[in-house]
Specification:
Elements: E1 2-8, E2 11-16, H1 23-33, E3 38-42, E4 45-48, H2 49-65, E5 73-77, H3 82-93, E6 97-100, H4 107-117, E7 119-125, H5 132-138, E8 143-147, E9 175-180, E10 190-194, H6 195-201
Parallel strand pairs: 5-6, 5-7, 7-8
Antiparallel strand pairs: 1-2, 3-4, 9-10
Helix pairs in contact: 1-2, 1-3, 2-3, 4-5
Length: 202
């Protein structure tokens, strides 16, 4: 059995019907089926799917406690570390839209992306703090939260462990993430990817 995956002009890309309907649903399905298998390795530490899922659930609850609503955009200005993966899935679990940003961006460039995407929240590495004035000037309505150095457990410390985040119904063609081009020939452009786009590319 197959279902429509996505359209590219007149071309239709098909996929198996059992493909996960959303980014987080795919992760949750893997975590349920392979709970004790290794999901992520960083330096000397390993996380099983069960451990990663639990931390994603805690962070998702923390984001909702911050007031994140379905469909709202969250900019993720975080270097390549485990917290990026955890927050990516936590935002998706909260039905938010992930806006990942290159940590090499200057403040003005980051500010443009945050403002253009309409992000309501920016999560950033603490080491990027000196670039924040330009971001705040470009997007004064965006809330800003610095990620503490070290494990993600230090973020939203008031949020107790609560188990995996529930899988909620999401329109498969709703926007899952927005990726920005480098802007080498002008202003960076945001490419919106739907859940079906991401699932098809996985």
């Amino acid at each position: 059995e197959r279902r429509r995956e996505s359209r590219f002009g007149d071309r239709v890309v098909w996929s198996f019907a059992e493909r996960a309907p959303s980014v987080y649903a795919g992760f949750a399905q893997a975590a349920q089926q392979h709970a004790q298998r290794t999901a992520m390795v960083f330096e000397c530490r390993r996380w099983s799917y069960a451990e990663l899922s639990a931390e994603v659930g805690r962070l998702a609850a923390g984001l909702r406690a911050q007031g994140l609503q379905p469909g709202e955009r969250v900019a993720l200005w975080v270097r390549n570390r485990p917290e990026f993966v955890m927050l990516f899935y936590a935002i998706s679990a909260s039905q938010g839209v992930v806006v990942p940003m290159d940590v090499r961006l200057a403040g003005a460039e980051a500010g443009y992306a945050v403002a253009d995407a309409g992000a309501v929240l920016l999560l950033h590495d603490a080491e990027l703090a000196e670039r924040l004035p330009a971001v705040r000037a470009a997007a004064p309505g965006c809330r800003v939260i610095a990620l503490p150095e070290g494990p993600a457990e230090r973020l939203f410390t008031q949020q107790p462990a609560c188990g995996p985040a529930p899988v909620t119904a999401v329109d498969a063609e709703a926007v899952a993430m927005i990726l920005y081009t480098s802007g080498s020939t002008g202003k960076p452009k945001g490419a919106a990817l739907a859940h079906v786009n991401v699932a098809h590319s996985a």
